Amino acid sequence: MKVHIHDNKKIENDTLIIGVPEHLNQLETIEVVNENINEKLKTLKQNHIISTNIGTVSTTLFSLKEKYVKLVTVGLGNVKLTNHSDYLKVFGNLFQYLKQERITKASLLFDTFQAHELTREAIAEILGQQSIQSIYQFDNYKTNKSAPYHIDLDLSTEKTDDILRSVEQGQSIASAINLARDFSQMPPNILTPSYYGEMVQKHFEGTQVSVDIKDSETLQSEGFGLIHAVGKGSHNGPSVITITYNGGKAEDAPIALVGKGITYDSGGYSIKSKTGMQTMKYDMCGSANVIAMIEAARKLELKINIVGVIAAAENMVNEAAMKPDDVFTALSGESVEVLNTDAEGRLVLGDAVFYANQFQPKLILDFATLTGAAVAALGDDKAAVFNHNADTTLQHILEYARQMDEFVFELPMTSTEQSLIRNSDVADLVNHTNGQGKALFAATFINHFAGETPHMHFDIAGPATTNKASHKGPKGPTGYLIPTIVSWMRHLK
Ligand code: BES
Ligand code: MN
Ligand code: ZN
């Protein structure tokens, strides 16, 4: 979307977009081309031609002086209560409507989009975000691609610089989300671990973000025994992709963002059922979202240091693949017994988290489509978070999640799980329990490798993808937690 901002009230386009509150008296007097249109809007509402329900888009022919325009209204509900989530719906529905109607030019009266709880800048940012996020589509592998959609939007408002900047910031966050979606949608025969690394390198080429890749041989020789064990069952060997963004002072400790990048999870010898295997290309969503968080930090020029670590591997079956009862030595030097090869995420993340800790981060966050158990506990639209030594940050992140319309709920790690992860007859640790509490077990296994460094683990097995289109976009990968983590990072001092 190209946005132009005018501070005049001259409507030069054939489509006019207005936000309409439930109580139309809350609408400031709207003057367009020297005509007060409030009374006309009231009549349209009384006649049920336009709706003021939150996010409802209505359209009608409208006469402005001697000219007719297509009027598009979006309901804002009671603007004393309208919040961030509501505005996602308002602008998501609006842009999806504009795209569906292939409207390529429109004038939007920005000042009609009010909310007592949100600043003008916050509203502008959501507008920018939804102008890109809500109309995402992925047709790279279709022969007949739908034509790219662009709209030239004239925003009429005052103090135009702040507003334009906020729109652009929203667009930066949304293009990061769509970048994560693009990676996640790629078919697993194409997005192998090594190609993933190449793509990430190519994406950040020429920016201040640097990308380092360790291939399978390097991983083996440097002692990444768990990542190597998972990846050696495939001809497409594993990679560790390290992404560094230094926007802060040289002496500031980085935050570490670690992502599960299983480009395909067949389950290995503990093989998945034919229906359980479908969609397992999405087992790298955690890592795609980490790439997006760093991309957003770069575009927003955040003054912090970040080290991203992506553990990429294909969990497959060949004669070299790991099998139940095997024992491997982790990067930490500890031995791990594999009782279930489908519990591969915690293995790769164990090594990745241990490696991330070498950068002496002040905090490690990891993101993973880790367990079906987290989905059984919370449903498929909520993330689970586990925290060790990071109580204050957890409270902040929970608050940002609430503001950003994302669901995150804390689950515990206790002495019960601490002893379960050590319950091996032959090795120091074991990757699987046959008992209950499988999400907690997996989290505790990963946390073990963070030592005493503050650590949070996010299990996004459910919400990483959705099978329902919404105002946030089509079905498929969601970029879950990118908005939450980016807004938390923006407020880090
Ligand atoms: N990638 C899966 C988890 C998953 C399941 C993600 C469904 C998205 C949707 C993970 O590697 C896995 O297979 N987990 C197993 C662990 C079990 C073997 C202990 C699970 O949750 O069933
Ligand atoms: Mn698995
Ligand atoms: Zn997996």
TrEMBL record:
Q: Does the entry feature the keyword Hydrolase, yes or no?
A: yes
User: Which residue intervals define the domain Cytosol aminopeptidase in the entry?
Assistant: 340-347
Keywords of the record, alphabetical order, are:
Aminopeptidase, Hydrolase, Protease
- Please indicate which superkingdom the organism of origin belongs to: Bacteria
The UniProt entry's GO biological process terms, in alphabetical order, are: proteolysis
According to the UniProt entry, its GO molecular function terms are: manganese ion binding; metalloaminopeptidase activity
From the UniProt annotation, give the residues forming the signal peptide. none
InterPro entries registered for this protein in UniProt: Leucine_aapep/pepB, Macro_dom-like, Peptidase_M17_C, Peptidase_M17_N
Q: Does the keyword Transport apply?
A: no
Identify the GO cellular component terms for this protein: cytoplasm
Tell me the protein family, please: Belongs to the peptidase M17 family.
Function, as annotated, reads:
Presumably involved in the processing and regular turnover of intracellular proteins. Catalyzes the removal of unsubstituted N-terminal amino acids from various peptides.
Name under which the protein is recorded? Probable cytosol aminopeptidase
